[in-house]
């Protein structure tokens, strides 16, 4: 059989989604090509894909309710672990939990991390990266500038000595360091001073004075000079987050490895200052600790430090996802850590035929008016796809996407029966 490549590609190029899927009574192909949840999809789409297993659904809702509305404000900690085989939908459940948490009136800051790394410092670095480097620096700088302006200390007096005019008005409002525009970030604030200083020695003295003030503020707030120095470097833009975390294993940065509890505490303080009542960390693919990437010594150290982090910082909620095999490996490495990770254990099973059909309907309804039918698939075709995928939703969804595309290629196919599905599963 001769394949006309140009004709095939030209036909697809000229087709709109409406033309391509209309005969199947769909607006688009709703099944993910890779079979995996899209971490960038909208919250509404995530919420539409509710957990299929009623027990799992109730367990995740109970976890959210018990953590989000905990009455003890100083002990909010609740640890949950989602387990299941590869491809059972652990990522989707994490994202579903995140969307529900963020949709409620209780203001919660929820961070999804798809790979925690192999050290706790990498995990903390991922938290900052997920908050957003610029946003995090803005949060830090807001703390600093508020303290500088606080009349209960003399920071503003110390800095005003460097102004050509103590009120900062000699060269116009744009050069007043304490104007709204110039308080926006460290660079603008510093430049407003430097624009009024021509003397090199005075500029150097100003830099040192401002640095000393910032470090004093940050150290007082965090009770730690190392963390204060780290945060100062972020504010001053000496290097970005990625480079910063590279320095952890060398030079003074290595000391941050022993500061993860204080560092997480400082991050939670910063987030709470923005008006958030709860702090959630949702960590996917938590298997690294048992994947063989770490030596036994490194695994033991990770387990010990994570246990200490969980015990000492109580103003956060942690929800992780990993395979059942990985959880059993953690039990062997560190039974105390496994106990702490399973305050709540939510176990996702493979899909029964009824559950798979329900999942398919949920996806189809993303691309049509809500309905309880399987069309354009027959029930027999769905049973075949589920069985051939080992009842794993990731594999099944990937196959459904492929089969639906092939049906859309055919002009005369309006219903995908078991024979059509079988022909494209070989």
Would you summarize the structure shown here?
InterPro entries: BrxD, ExeA_AAA_ATPase_DNA-bind, P-loop_NTPase. It is built from 20 helices and 5 strands.
Key descriptive features of the protein:
single chain, 426 residues, alpha/beta, 5-stranded parallel β-sheet, 20 helices, 53% helix
Largest sheet: 5 strands, parallel
Helix content: 40-55%
**How far do the termini sit from each other?**
18 Å
Over all CA atoms, what is the radius of gyration?
A: 27 Å
Structural class, from secondary structure content? alpha/beta
Helix and strand succession? HHHHEHEHHHHHHHHEHEHHEHHHH
Cα shape: elongated
SS element count, helices: 20
Strand content: 5-15%
Could you name the ranges where pLDDT drops below 50 across 5 or more consecutive residues?
Answer: 239-243, 247-253
> Averaging pLDDT over every residue, what do you get?
85
Q: Using DSSP, what is the number of strands?
A: 5
Please state how the strands of the largest beta sheet are arranged side by side.
Answer: 2-3-4-1-5
InterPro entries: BrxD, ExeA_AAA_ATPase_DNA-bind, P-loop_NTPase
């Amino acid at each position: 059989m001769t394949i006309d490549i140009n004709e095939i590609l030209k036909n697809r190029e000229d087709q709109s989604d409406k033309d391509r899927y209309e005969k199947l009574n769909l607006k688009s192909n709703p099944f993910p090509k890779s079979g995996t949840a899209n971490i960038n999809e909208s919250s509404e789409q995530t919420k539409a894909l509710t957990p299929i297993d009623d027990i799992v659904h109730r367990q995740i809702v109970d976890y959210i309710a018990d953590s989000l509305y905990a009455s003890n404000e100083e002990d909010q900690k609740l640890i949950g672990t989602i387990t299941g085989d590869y491809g059972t939908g652990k990522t989707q459940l994490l994202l579903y939990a995140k969307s529900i948490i963020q949709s409620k009136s209780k203001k919660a800051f929820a961070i999804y991390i798809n790979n925690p790394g192999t050290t706790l410092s990498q995990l903390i670095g991922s938290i900052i990266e997920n908050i957003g480097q610029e946003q995090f620096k803005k949060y830090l700088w807001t703390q600093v500038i508020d303290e500088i302006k606080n009349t209960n200390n003399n920071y503003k007096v110390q800095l005003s000595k460097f102004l050509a005019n103590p009120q900062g008005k000699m060269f116009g409002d744009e050069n007043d360091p304490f104007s709204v525009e110039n308080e926006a970030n460290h660079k603008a604030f510093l430049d407003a001073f430097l624009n009024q200083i021509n003397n090199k020695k005075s500029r150097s003295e100003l830099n040192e004075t401002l640095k000393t003030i910032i470090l004093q503020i940050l150290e007082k707030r965090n009770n730690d000079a190392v963390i204060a120095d780290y945060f100062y470097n972020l504010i001053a833009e000496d290097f970005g987050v990625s480079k910063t975390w590279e320095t952890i294993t060398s030079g003074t940065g290595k000391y941050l490895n022993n500061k993860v509890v204080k560092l997480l505490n400082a991050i939670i303080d910063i987030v709470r200052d923005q008006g958030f009542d709860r702090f959630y960390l949702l960590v996917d693919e938590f298997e690294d600790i048992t994947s063989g990437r770490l030596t036994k010594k490194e695994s033991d150290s990770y387990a010990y430090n994570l246990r200490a982090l969980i015990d000492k910082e109580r103003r956060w909620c942690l929800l992780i996802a990993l395979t059942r095999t990985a959880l059993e490996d953690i039990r062997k490495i560190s039974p105390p850590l496994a106990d702490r990770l399973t305050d709540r254990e939510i176990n996702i099973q493979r899909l029964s035929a009824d559950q798979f059909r329900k999942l398919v309907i949920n996806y189809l309804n993303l691309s049509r008016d809500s309905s309880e039918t399987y069309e354009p698939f027959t029930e027999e075709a769905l049973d075949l796809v589920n069985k051939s995928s080992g009842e794993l939703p990731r594999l099944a969804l990937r196959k459904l996407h492929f089969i639906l595309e092939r049906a859309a290629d055919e002009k005369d196919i309006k219903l995908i029966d078991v024979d059509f599905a079988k022909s494209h599963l070989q």
